[in-house]
Each structure stands twice: as C-alpha cells, then as structure tokens.
Design a protein that fits this description.
The protein is built from six helices and no strands. By secondary structure, the chain is an all-alpha fold. The relative contact order is 0.06. It comes from Kingdonia uniflora.
Length: 153
Amino acid sequence: MPTHSEIYTVDPKNAEHVLKTNFSNYGKVNILIIVILYGEKWRHQQKLASYEFSSEVLRDFISVVFLANVAKLVAKVSEAATFNMKINLQELLMKCTLASIFKVGFGTELNSLSESDEIGYQFSKVFDDDNVNVYWRYMDPSWKIKRMLNIGS
C-alpha cells in the first residue's frame, strides 16, 4: 500500500540487517517484531533485539537530541547579540532542557524555543506556571488553608 508496508522474515540475518547492521538506513519507522523461536535461535534474536534498547543507543539518542536543541539555543542567543536585544537566558535554558526531555521521553518535538509554534509555547508557559505553583506550595505551609478559602493560586 502507498502509506503502509510490511516485511515478514524468518531469517535472523534479515532482522539483524534492519535492527543493527543498517539501522540508520531505515529512518524513523515503526518496527513490530514477533518472534517465536527456541534455543540458540531465540538467544541470537534476543541479543539483536536488545541492541535497540541498550543504554549506549539511548545515550547516543539523548546526545543527538540535546545537541540539536543546544544549536537552536545558540542561534537564539547569537541573534539577540547581533541585534543587541535583551533575553531571559534562564527562560531559554529551561525551554531548551524541556524540549530535549520532551523529545527523549515522548518522541515528539515540543519546539518550545520557537515562538512561532503556539502549542510548544503554550505548553512551556503552563509548565513554567505549574513549576512556580509547586515551588510556592512547598515554600508556603499555609497553602491548604489558602486553597480552602480560595485565596491565591
């Protein structure tokens, strides 16, 4: 089908080709593998599948994501310096971190560093507001009374 394709194989070498040897050639694809194997074939397949979820692969992915978001941050700071604009560096650092964590944790671009992405901007704003509320709840021992009296945030 034009929007969907499936490949079936019983050869572990094909699975190794997709999952390990040439994984980068397959881009961002959804891979579902159902394996019914026993003995040595099972151990071989298990070893191949575990590569996808290894700490090294995760560490490499996190590095790529963080470096991409740091590049966006550097571009923002460079632009501000070029045009002698004031920026809130703490806010930009938080947005950069949030975007990176969001991509790693949920697999979705938040684009919180881009003011043109309204959803990313709104999420970042709500996230920041909630963090402030949690902070003040921790710092203010009378927050329960204020909530009962409907006073404050």
